[in-house]
Amino acid sequence: MRFIEEVVVDEFLPTFRSLLAADLRERGLTQHEVAELLGVSQSAVSKYAHGDVTVNDVVAEDERVRETVERIGEGLASGDVSQVQALVEAEVLVRRLSARGDVVAALHEDAMPALSEYDGDFRVHDPDSEVRVRERVLSSVRRGVRTLEHASGFATLIPAVGSNLVECTPDADGVEDVAGVPGRILDVMGRTEIPADPEFGVSVHVATVLLAAREAGSDAKACLNVRYDEAVVDALVDAGYEVAEFDPEGEPSEGAIREAVSGAPDADVLYQTGGFGVEPIVYLLADSAPEAAEMARELL
């Protein structure tokens, strides 16, 4: 009796790690860095590099395997993909390949011929699991934050209260389902300062604006706040974005936001011109954090 997990360990894993190690080395990472990212020893990386590990050609030549290796390799090398997300992506790939009739399932049937008479499906994990969805959102926010960090002059768009770039899960129903930057993005002597890596549940203000907009019918999944200036709003209008104004009536005012979006569900920009004790702010709505960051970069 041989379990499918044994096939994964003996056939898939050595091949996948070998391909991923080679990809990371080609991207300029050192043997030590590759070992750290993959959680293996440097000697193991050396074996992968010198072809001392047996590679299953069927697995190695599968297009989905190669696409996943390239995507994870690029993300790990750039820092846009965490080790957790890389693990989840690899796990999802394993489960897909383990479905009846697929690569790993076929290898399993070769090892256990009696399985060919069984009509069941060995895929036991959901590719759209919550952990995968949330890791994807975090990765997206990291990419958006990196865009802002390297956008020359973005600090001039940061309001006195600070900016934040947030993105929510598809079925978000609270701030715990919205990822953002802890402590907000700050202007430190003309330099954009990112205090920490994105996390879920760390933004109340900008997350609440996004959630209120979505409740009113907006399809946006991300939001970035920047300083208000009439010229900023005019530039966004000239760029073809739909804008909607709301009365803050406090900070933030979910009711006013919902009312504004209800009248303009396709709005890309929400803004308020301030009030007593309330700083005027512009909110950029987009389908993803990187897209919201690009909207801001267009203003520079």
UniProtKB/TrEMBL annotation:
HTH cro/C1-type domain segment(s): 20-48
CDD domains: HTH_XRE
Domain of life: Archaea
Pfam family, one: HTH_3
Protein name: Thiamine-phosphate synthase family protein
